[in-house]
Amino acid sequence: GHQIAAVSERPQTTWQQMKGIYSDPEHGQIIFVDTPGIHSAESAMNLAMLSGALEASIDADIVLVILDANVVKRWDLVILEQLGADERVVIVGNKIDLLEAIPASPLFDKIPDLKERPLCWTSAKDGTGVDGLLSEVFARLPEGPPLYDLEDLTDRPTRFIVAEFVRQSIFEYLQQEIPYSTFVEVEEYHEDKRPVYIGANIFVERESQKQILIGRKGQQIRQIGTRARRLIEELIGQRVYLDLWVKVLPKWTRKEAHLRRAGLLAGDKKLERAEGLVQEFRRNAVSDEPGHE
């Protein structure tokens, strides 16, 4: 019932792992690990993103492969081919609100053994099928004590969610490559002030991107700030003063130190390790089927 991550209509809006905590007093607790989508990774930033998704799929008790019930993409087939007969996998056919009827889904044509696999149909937009998906997950999870307090929504601090909401607003207002070349860093967060004061930096790679993000007479950055502020206020239930600054950090998407600062390389993780994991995935994804690379 709460939004804690950036969402948009554009692919790869999710860029690093984030846990969403669902607690039910009767059934237990589910830790959903949201990851970047599986995609073709070329840049250092995309390698780091993809490796995060692959690591999550290795460590999880259950792997939910969420597919668009209306269209089958090449990477969907690659993922299912890779996971094979893994008993942890549950396929989720989403966006059924756009289907006339579930049997009309192209997933049945492209995935021959679909009916034999664990499968749930959902609409994230209107909530159809979500209860059934939760029941399926609870039935498959191993028993154990809860890992988080029942009131927790995520493992991430509020500052991270604030940065996510600013990123979402950038995705909503700007096109082409600019949203993918930005990261947000919350520098100040003063809960003791009224309204709550939040100061954040938006980093881009080039001066030209900075000018576009700010817009003529600052109009674009004001729109982004207004949208983000409303999302933050809905989350924390208080009025917010959001102060945004746009700064240039040259080639940040290609440098390990900057990727670490942005949170894409956490702990002792190295870019070299991320590259190795992605290369192994690519080797295993090779197929003679048409449409595969």
Helix and strand arrangement:
Elements (H helix, E strand, L loop, with lengths): L17 E7 L3 E7 L9 H16 L3 E6 L5 H10 L5 E6 L12 H4 L8 E3 L8 H11 L17 H16 L9 E8 L5 E9 L2 H8 L4 H18 L3 E9 L7 H7 L8 H15 L8
Parallel strand pairs: 3-4, 4-5, 7-8
Antiparallel strand pairs: 1-2, 6-7
Helix pairs in contact: 1-9, 5-7
Key structural traits:
three-stranded parallel beta sheet, 293 residues
Task: Write structural notes for this entry.
This protein has 293 residues and is α/β, with parallel strands linked by helices. Helix content is 36%, strand content 19%. The strands form three sheets. A three-stranded parallel sheet has the order 3-4-5, sandwiched between helices. A three-stranded mixed sheet has the order 6-7-8. Strand 6 (183-190) and strand 7 form a beta hairpin. It starts with 17 loop residues before the first strand and ends in an 8-residue tail after the last helix. The model is unreliable at 287-293 (pLDDT under 50).
